[in-house]
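Q: Fold this one first, please.
A: Sequence and structure below.
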Amino acid sequence: MSKKILVVIASTRPGRLGPAVGDWFTSATAATAAELGVELGVADLAEIGLPFLDEPEHPATGNYVHEHTRAWSRRVAAADAFVFVTSEYNFGMPATLKNAFDYLHAEWAWKPCLFIGYGNTSAGTRGVQMARGVATSLRMLSIGGDIFLRIVDDVRDGRVIATDRLTVRARGALVELNRVADVLRPLYRDGEDIVPVAVSDAAELLVLQRCCWVDEAIANSRLDLPALLESEGEVAEGLRTWSTWCVRSGGRIVGSVRARRDGDAWEIGRLMVAPDRRHTGLGRRLLAFAEGQAPNDVAAATLFTGEHSDRNILLYQKAGYALSADPAPVGAVRLTKSLAA
């Protein structure tokens, strides 16, 4: 599975050099990224436009109220590593970068990062030093080997001078960042990939299903939930009519989700995580993966949960879903989310 490295442009000041520095890095490393199977993306904080932190709850809770936070969360969570391109203002990093850090918590953890500083006398070193301290407190690993550009020496006409020396530095930094991401992946991705479920997995899936839906039965005060009553044969039949994926760890299935097209919507169902693996972000990973499998011409995702399943409803709302007034099975509620973006 290819890795995603996010280049974050920190400064939002008019006339800033950040985008030019980011363009230089992505251009200088494009061939290396292709060889490594790395996808380079750019997150320009000026375009993202996060307001100053306006979430009522601590970011460690993951309870996000605003869609701009959820969008930023999804983008950071999907990344395997970061390159922070930052200037230096008054011996420190831009307030916009500190603000972007402060919005999130678990999404940053255990991922490697590289800094590219730029400036005049200090070439941005003091801003990077400040940013590195914050990144470390968020449990990111700064790999060292940071790149510093002195504007008078390395910039001309608003563009970075693409010397061989700088190109070699950039490519080497990307190789090292990718290597460290490989080592840290078991921490930030549980070392587990999401793979299709085979029909032969029906019995194991049934065990997980019954285990997970006990909580649903208690929360909704009912035992007649289909997920509790299905037989192994019915689970196997569902695998033939739904696209179903799972995550394995230690030789067992620890999480699963399924989806299928339902008219103009992409229906997601049976999102489940083993009790000992809850609160690790696995459920969010599975949900985001299922959304990503939707056909291009499908505009919305839809799912159902028990009307008293408060934890589930909160999880889905944090992921951008909203309660819908459209019909739902007895005792359940429907939630929908636009996939147009």
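Q: Good. Now the second chain.
A: Here it is, same layout.
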Amino acid sequence: MSPRTSPELLMDAAPGGTLLRQLLARPTALAALALLCVILSMAVFAPFLSPRHPADVDITRKFEAPSLEEPLGTDHLGRSVLARLCHGTRVSLVAVAAILTSIVAVGLTAGCVAGYAGGRVDGLLMRACDVFMTFPTFILALFLVGLLGSGLTNVIIAVACTHWAWYARFARGLVLGLKQREYVLAARAAGTRPARLVLRHILPPVLAQMLVMAGLDVGHMLLHVSGLSFLGLGVRPPTPEWGVMIGDAREYIGTHPELLLYPGLMIFVTVMAFNLLGDALRDALDPAAARETDCAPHDAHDGDGLDGSGEYADTEDGPADFEATGAGARQGAA
């Protein structure tokens, strides 16, 4: 089993304060946490940062320059840009949280059942995963949103349906390795029921690694939500959302480019902060991963989790590469 995916490394990692101290000792993690604190503060204190309602239209005030009353000015309908940015933070983060919660729940359940049960159940679930992993995730999300209709709820469902397979295959690989561990075999020999065995001995380390993977995918999911909203298939106007704001302002890119700059910068900073924090968390939980990532050749594995022969790299000993699987999940829209 690759040291980057070995669950025992994650299980042995000191929890709580020790992990927090390791994160705070990393400059990139500190910078990411600071940025995320600012972004979350914008979402929580949105009504206080800009008293105007984000959908309050006043044509007489359109394209106002930044002032004390409107620090970022107004858009083409006289709406407060700051108010829409702050309230749009709420919409974007809530959507991403709902998507990742659904993905982790479905992927964890399917992966644990497939890995522990094996046989026909494993084969059936993995073939279902293969179907979803065949198509680029963004194209498949477009197709599902076209079937379900536009709207934030349908976007959450569509994006979750296009990504659960990556997490299910990753969880299955971890379970295959864990169920051969001595303490699991001993618990099985002692007559522990399968459900209790999975919940007590297998689920915790698998869930911990999947949460790390989900942290690395926050930016990817945010780009999905914003991209679909930009195309008019996601959040419906006048609901404030970063992708919607970019779509509304694209007609004025020549005269008022700042209307695209503000939401674009928010997307960039948020994605960067979550990626930096996810990398730092991964390195803190598994220091060997950082060293191996720095030294490993870039062509060791394909980005979609396949080895050189075209076969999936996870075996009965566990998943071959956490980074390869995570990269495949993040590159699915390419």
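Q: Anything worth noting on the second one?
A: The CA atoms of residues 17 and 23 lie 10 Å apart.
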